[in-house]
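Whether sequence alone determines local backbone shape is best considered at the level of individual chains. The sequence in question and its structure tokens are set out directly beneath this paragraph.

***
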Amino acid sequence: MEKKRYDAVVIGAGVTGSAIARELSRYQAEICVLEKGEDVCTGTSKANSAIVHGGFDAKTGSLKAKMNVLGNRMMTQVAEELDVPFRRNGAFVLCFDENDMPALNELYERGVTNGVENLKILTGDEAREMEPALSDTVVAALFCPSSGIVCPFELTLGFAENAEKNGVEFKFECGVQNIRRENDLYILETEQGKIETRAVINAAGVHADEIHDMLLPHAFTITPRRGEYCLCDKNAGNLVDKTIFQLPTKLGKGILVTPTVHGNLLLGPTAENIEDREDTATTQSGLAFVLEKAGMSVKNVPSRQIITSFSGLRACADRGDFILEESAPNFFEAAGIESPGLTSAPAIGVYMAEMAAKALGLTKKESFNPVRHGVVHLNSLSVEERAEKIRENPLYGSIVCRCETISEGEIVDAIRRPLGAKTLDGVKRRTRAGMGRCQAGFCSPRVMDILARELNLPLTAIRKNEKGSEIVFGKTK
């Protein structure tokens, strides 16, 4: 079989890599995305604060500031095109001590300089009038109405599915083991064999420095920074309407309290530099810290309403800024994409794709379609729309996940659609089956049955996520 040669290979199918792939799919080119995980959105992109940041925190003149503000402005259109839940709920940054007012004012001035619109400093009483649950110790707050909340899974999947629809090829469980340059081509040695390409775009998250070092002298170091979160039941989702930050520190934006686009309440994250690039364990001390600090911001933190905890890793580069550059001829890097990486993804996608397209001499294609339709969620439809959907396909009348009211029809759609789900976590991120109060305690066996049927696999082959996470090993009788 003749070896396929690509114009560009993107390494990493997180939100950054998927956004770059989508923007590259606007051009006449053979594009491939390589992902070492089993699915889109298996790394940093699956476990973060889901915040669309305003852009007031990033250092003026930095790539973080530029991409944050641009990405924020693009998000409304991107979410509409990709059928992704997004809401501009606004954000507060809280000040608890009059002595810290200079820092709050500095944040305001920086935001204005960065181009963030409609910022305002409120008194504690003005802030509490808007958010009654705020602590009585709040003396002032910075209000940013352009901040928002988004679904990070659906945003990443939206970019990836739209890229695939426009001709991009995705290879999963295809980790890159070595890269070398031969004449005008890059040869990538992967878990699925050798791949030739004219250009490489490194968007490998916490592994981006390792990918860089396969080809070039060491130039930057990525440190995984673990952040632990608590997620509360939807009963607690209306405690606050806006995203509540505390004045930031060198390690990040501190513990936040925020609603999610799906109606839950999210608390976190911690910020701990670690060595293991795969360590997403939670700790008793970390979660206790989250609850303690969240209690500074709001009254009556609903700790008894916590339904799960999780942690994610941020890819922190020692340069202190996003690394968006051409490090060698046709070898491009989107590295060190920590917060506000999710917000910045649409802008980084455009920035990196334009850089690569110019270097490769690519031309735009007229056939690009920016629209992607997500899974139709039964619980978002009116009674009449539900009835019509069930008439069209009776599988939508069979509820599998009772906590989130997810039907068999939605799960089948999630499996059969482009880049469809192959695991329990894949179904969960596309449909929310298993994300409710019982945390998949009741619906997992039924979802496994559906996966086995749709993928024509034995139950023993159905996994939670990566290889080795099979759930059942055989029959007991």
Observations:
- The mean pLDDT is 96.
- The chain is about 30% helix and 25% strand.
- The two ends are 46 Å apart (CA to CA).
- Residues 260 and 380 are 15 Å apart (CA to CA).
